[in-house]
Amino acid sequence: MSNHDIGIIGMGVMGKNLACNIANTGYKVSVFNRSHNQIMKILFKKPIERLFPYLSIKKFINSLRKPRCVMLMIQSGIPVDELIQTLLPYLCSGDLIIDGGNSFYEDTIKRFNFLQKKSIQFLGVGISGGSEGALKGPSIMPGGTIEAYELVAPIFKNISAKYHKEECVEYIGSDGSGHYVKMVHNGIEYSDMQLIAETYSLLKNLVGIDNIGLSDIFKNWNKGELCSYLIEITGNILCKQDEDGNFIIDYILDSASNKGTGMWTAKSGLDLYTPCSVITESVFARYLSSYKANRMIASTILSGPQISKISDCDKEKFIKDIRKALFLGKIISYAQGFSLMKRASARYSWNLSFSKIAKIFRAGCIIRANLLNDISAAYSENNDLIDLLFAPIFRDIVNSYHFSLRNIVSIAVSNGISVPVFSATLSYYDAYRTVNSSANLIQAQRDYFGSHTYHRIDRSGIFHTDWLDK
Ligand code: 6PG
């Protein structure tokens, strides 16, 4: 019977949970995995209602109603191209392939163009929320043609996270736009996480707060303007103990991994001439953390100041300053991410709606935060907003909170505690609000050694000076 609504290939945890989510909402789902993995074995042994496992790709495809919708939940990169090649002989004109992995958006654009020539529809879909989100409701960012999106929109709307009944899925734009937006989501995820990690470091090392105290602080902050998924899980992580009563956080190796999406965001910032220093610095912070062996050597060779703890009478103010600095850092990181999407939207003619993007980030995804309501409101008033920091609500916060950021960065620096993303946030903020920067000297140097020319502030035109002429 060819009447199943959608097929999912890739029965890893994400694929399986997404398939279960779709089946739970009443759709018939065919599933296939290249190998007969553990999950497939379980699916055959203990069938799940409306979920149909297949061992042959031909039978899997034939089980789908036309036009067939086949969703790939597999590792990004070459495996996606290989699988598309495998699928092609079984598909007919008008069928739809959906890539639900964390694919690089330029690959998605290439695949979209390639498949269009073969009359196969293609959607590159960003999905955020981890394994739990996939099962209970992710945030979904589909990119491709609107016609292709409409084929699966009812399913996506049903399975997506809901923010006060509003579905966290919106058509993003053509070709690679969905994966691009997911990539920037991840870039913001990196800086959000790094800012929280630096906060943890300051509270632990400068204020001397223990894990339970730290957990309480994050749980308390989560009741206010910082309210977000990442603050919430940090509160839970810090108080978690193992079977021996040890705090797990104290036993985790301080070497952070990554799968590359933050790096792609940073690279895109460079490609599109858009300063994403906060996101980029958070990627470098992960890289540096992974140089554990070097850091151990450096700690015995390279010196720094003694840490002097914050005095009891200053603790309360310092903790308050950290909270404000963290919120300011978060705002600037989102502002950089949205500026990058704005530049990409113009570059690729995606016509992105930033208000809608902020809305679908409000539930299901990893960077979900109360702050996104204000971001969405700011862009719904003006999608062409030059910068999020210019919206009155954010302007007022940054104008008041930058004093706190200065205070904590200067105390961290004088104590030799590394706060790369807080520092990057402050440097960006100060550089951004500076009318007369030092770039005049850069231009003079370029002209001196390379005749690269410069503009003058008092006359129009292009100038070159013979700098050696006395
Ligand atoms: C999400 C996440 C997810 C990502 C992990 C790991 O939105 O659900 O962004 O897609 O894979 O966060 O990313 P790193 O391994 O690069 O930290």
Which fold does the CATH topology of the largest domain refer to?
A: N-(1-d-carboxylethyl)-l-norvaline Dehydrogenase, domain 2
Estimate percent helicity: 40-55%
Molecular shape: globular
| CATH architecture term of the largest domain | Orthogonal Bundle
Core attributes:
EC 1.1.1.44; 470 residues; alpha/beta; two-stranded antiparallel sheet; 6-phosphogluconate dehydrogenase, decarboxylating; Rossmann fold; N-(1-d-carboxylethyl)-l-norvaline Dehydrogenase, domain 2; binds 6-phosphogluconic acid; 8% strand
Describe this structure in words.
45% of the residues are buried. The protein has 19 helices and 9 strands. Helix 8 (177-205) packs across helix 11 (261-271), helix 8 (177-205) packs antiparallel against helix 14 (312-348) and helix 12 runs antiparallel to helix 18 (420-432). The radius of gyration is 25 Å and the shape is globular. With 470 residues, the protein is α/β, with parallel strands linked by helices. The protein has helices spanning 13-24, 38-45, 57-62, 78-87, 105-117, 130-136, 146-159, 177-205, 211-221, 229-238, 261-271, 277-289, 292-301, 312-348, 354-360, 371-381, 392-414, 420-432, 439-450; strands at residues 6-9, 29-32, 51-54, 69-72, 96-99, 121-128, 139-143, 162-163, 166-167. 55% of the residues lie in helices and 8% in strands. It starts with 5 loop residues before the first strand and ends in a 20-residue tail after the last helix. The strands form 2 sheets. Strands 3-2-1-4-5-6-7 form a 7-stranded mixed β-sheet, with helices on both faces. A two-stranded antiparallel sheet has the order 8-9. The model has no long low-confidence stretch (mean pLDDT 97). The structure holds 6-phosphogluconic acid. 6-phosphogluconic acid (6PG) binds at residues 102, 128-130, 186, 189, 257-259, 261-262, 365-366. Belongs to the 6-phosphogluconate dehydrogenase family.
